[in-house]
Amino acid sequence: MISKPDRYLRLGLLHTAEIHQARFDALLSHESDATAVHLSAPALLQEAINEGLTDKVMAKVRAAVDSLVSQNVDGILCTCSTLGDLVEQLSSPACPCLRIDRPMALSAVTHGESIGVLVSVASTLAPTWALFEDSATSTGTQPEIKLYVAEGAWEAFERGDTETYLALVRAAAQQLLRAHDVVALAQVSMADAAHGLLAEGKRVLSSPESGLQHMLALLRERSVRS
User: Fold this and answer.
1) R_g of the chain computed on alpha carbons
2) 83 and 164 inside one domain
3) N or C: which end of the chain has fewer CB within 10 A?
């Protein structure tokens, strides 16, 4: 007989694309002690793309985080690489906030001497660069880190052409494997492009599973301590 957990973890997930809800529901279906509370705010990403990470964007991010907190979540996982740093700035002891790609970045700088980081939208270049630089500093590593944009991919994503989007990401990642020993797919939407990307002695990293597992481990540890 399978015993039920004493308490379910309520994980807040802040998305900027509604399609990510199904991915994380599927991942969480394998976890017996956690349930998702989703909030999708695609307009936030569009505003960040158009205007940058302004105080106005930060205020809207804060409102989104407050909305999840009001639903009694135990922690918040931001699945948007562009807004991830803003969400982490709102982390608190009562409700830790994590960007989905931080565990991936830590793994990349730990295992790679030459890292190619692939993004599909230019708005995430600066936040992603800052993340990887911070990860290298925190681990005391000094890998070569280069960022690239998968040209044309974001336009395909915006028009709902997932097949073309993933094909363009996969082709760009395959090129990077020739020059780097680790390739990191910076955004959640890119994860499925990792399928079939193989090169001897090379690593292809994506963020959904590693980010989710890291957050769940953190919340479980807090639950035990409390």
Assistant:
1) 17
2) no
3) N
